Amino acid sequence: MDRIKLPPIHWLQAFEASARHLSFKDAADELHLTASAVSQKIKQLEDSLGITLFTRMTRTLALTSAGNDFRHVAKDVMNFYQQRQREFMRRFNRRDLKLSMIPFIAYDIVLPALPQFQEQYSETELRIEAATSVVNFAEDDTDAAIRFGAGEWPGLVATPLCRCQSVLVCSPAFLEQNPIDSPLDLQNHTLISMRGVEDVWSLVGQNLGVPDISRCRTLGVDSYLGAMIAAQQGLGIAIALKPLINPWLNDGRLVSLLGMEADMEDGYYFVRRVQDRDDQRLQQLYIWLKNLFLERDAVTSDWKASKHLTEMV
């Protein structure tokens, strides 16, 4: 079977940009070329295919029917090439590791311990990305992330860091001024809610037998870190997660309410791509992170660190 002669990738790049902009000039600006150079590449591509891809008019440019079909081919090829190029450079031409996590974990757990990591693994540069959004591994150059959930994300490997318990918290001054002796007392105070999980207070109300909790005053914040700071400032009552909040409880920045903790099915996981499952630097990073979470005193009998370190390495 004869092999089809494929056009050079730079012809496809010029065509895809021109088809997207419907302008050789705009495509040239994007590719840092001249308009005549782009036009020449398109002509070479058309000659190679034996098909006219653009209808050229005095001041406008339009795709032919064949050009519109080939636009999808070029786009798919360029997307695949760019993604695989990023993955290649990420794996073989970088000293740094990019780790994504929510701001609270970044600022309260990871960054304070970063000098330890730098001393222990001096050959690796750790870049911290603090974000409330979930990173898209298919499009981003992130190497790993700390995620909260059930540990099941398609195309990714998730290794447990800790289980969590939920607890209601407020500042000591707030509690002193607003005694809370029963769940029904919650109805008289401001409840701090986080963007994206505003309905969690309704679930708390159902579990505590407070049916009117949804009528309470609320204070909306954009992140878990914002909720904890708002609670510390005496602005209301928040839902905190152990072990993340343990140091804040231990040093008195916050106090827990009603003596209740609820075990959660979800927990925090160290997440990376399937192809990076055995990457040695990511294994080292996981072990270091696992120890940080262990220091927060939140390991149950079936989540022993030794078990999961064995699974990881």
Give a short summary of the structure.
This protein is an alpha/beta fold.
Describe the protein in words.
By secondary structure, the chain is α/β, with parallel strands linked by helices. Helix content is 43%, strand content 21%. The chain has eleven helices and eleven strands. The strands form three sheets. Strands 3, 4, 5, 6, 9, 10 and 11 form a seven-stranded mixed sheet that branches. Helix 5 links the parallel strand 3 and strand 4. Helix 1 crosses helix 3. The longest helix is centred in the first third of the chain and has 28 residues. It is elongated and about 80 Å long. The two termini are 46 Å apart. The C terminus is likely disordered.
Strand tally is: 11
Relative helix content: 40-55%
Q: Which of globular, elongated, flat, extended, rod-shaped describes the shape?
A: elongated
Distance between the termini: 46 Å
Question: Count the helices. How many?
Answer: 11
* Percent of sequence in beta strands: 15-25%
Stretches where pLDDT is under 50 for at least 5 consecutive residues are: 298-313
Computed over alpha carbons, the radius of gyration is 27 Å
**SSE succession:** HHHEEHEHEEEHEHEHEHEEHH
Mean pLDDT: 87
The biggest beta sheet is recorded as: 7 strands, mixed
Structural class: alpha/beta
